Amino acid sequence: MSGRRPRSPFAARTVAAARSPLATRTVLAALALALALALGGCASPRGDGGAQRGGSSVGHGEAASGASPFWVDPDSEAARQVARWERQGRAADARILRRIADRPVAVWPSGADPVPQIEHAVRGATAEGRTPVLVAYNIPHRDCGLYSAGGAADASAYRTWIHSFATALGRAPAVVILEPDAIAHLADGCTPAEHHEERYTLLAQAVSRLKQQPRTRVYLDAGNPAWISDPARLAGPLQRAGVNAADGFALNVSNFQSNGTVRAFGARLSALLGGSHFTVDTSRNGQGPLPGDRAQAWCNPPGRALGTPPTTRTGDKLVDAYLWIKRPGESDGPCRGGPPAGTWWPDYALGLARRATN
């Protein structure tokens, strides 16, 4: 895969979408904002187990939702919490939490039928001329039975699920992060050996099926540098799982490694894959990882902050986008007083937003 693309593929899609009147107004508004910022000379603000997963100045000032090609869900948990706190008179907290509510965050379709959530995201994004970011997270034997255990009952159920997922995307532009943890759990031995061949087959088939949608970009999750520190251990599994047919790989999903650390690691892995591009989850890496070698540093660590807001202006030819894949404010699991994995935790969300510098 070539690493010499002169501009982000997301930017090309935004231009193509501008053929509709609504999308034209959206693009022109974003261009006007960028021009105003330029003229004003200032910038705007943004292991193991359990979807394990901070920050340079690259991309800062370019991630307010108006300057991002990605869709913001107006009915997210963060948006509802803002409305709730405003009704309760907590105006200051509500204003801080808008650092999450007003920015694009990935959608993780849950349950046996992913279609309703995907169709909701696609409709909302299409109406605004934007691109939804979604996560396919339903592989059998998911998370080795740890905090985020579950997934499809068997290979047949997964194929049906991923087919429904892809069909619901239709011809709309979309970004899909494919199966967080699935590759890294093969590399670290957490997934039992008897499931390896099935997982490689299912991942490759999922890439192939998703790429049948004409405007869907697919990034196969590859863990983070604190989990699998040697990229050579990931290159082979990624190739077997179909990364060469995808648009690249994803790093730092639900983790806290700094942008610089992740970019350096990603560049090494990219070189082993012939120049493959990648995305970086910056949702909670604004203060980097929890200092020291502490147990469960990945699980609801204290003192963390939102990182670089979602943007395609990364300043790195290999990094297609900084994305908020982990939904900031959702628990990593029942550790440090947190609720079950994936549950909205407003106090933790407020802390992330309050400590953010973007």
Q: Strands, helices and their partners?
A:
Layout lengths: L8 H9 L3 H20 L36 H11 L3 H11 L13 H14 L4 E4 L18 H15 L4 E5 L3 H6 L8 H15 L5 E6 L10 H9 L7 E4 L7 H14 L5 E4 L37 E5 L22 H9 L4
Structure description:
This protein has 358 residues and is an alpha/beta fold. Helices cover 37% and strands 8% of the residues. It has 11 helices and 6 strands. A 6-stranded parallel β-sheet has the order 1-2-3-4-5-6. α5 runs parallel beside α6 (155-169). It is globular and about 55 Å long.
Distance between the termini: 33 Å
Mean pLDDT: 85
Residue share in helices?
Answer: 25-40%
Count the E strands. Answer: 6
What is the CA-based Rg, rounded? Answer: 19 Å
Query: What's the overall geometry?
Result: globular
How is the main sheet built?
A: 6 strands, parallel
Which tags fit this structure?
single chain, 358 residues, alpha/beta, six-stranded parallel sheet
Brief sketch in words of this structure:
With 358 residues, this protein is of the alpha/beta class. It has helices at 9-17, 21-40, 77-87, 91-101, 115-128, 155-169, 182-187, 196-210, 232-240, 259-272, 346-354, and strands at residues 133-136, 174-178, 216-221, 248-251, 278-281, 319-323.
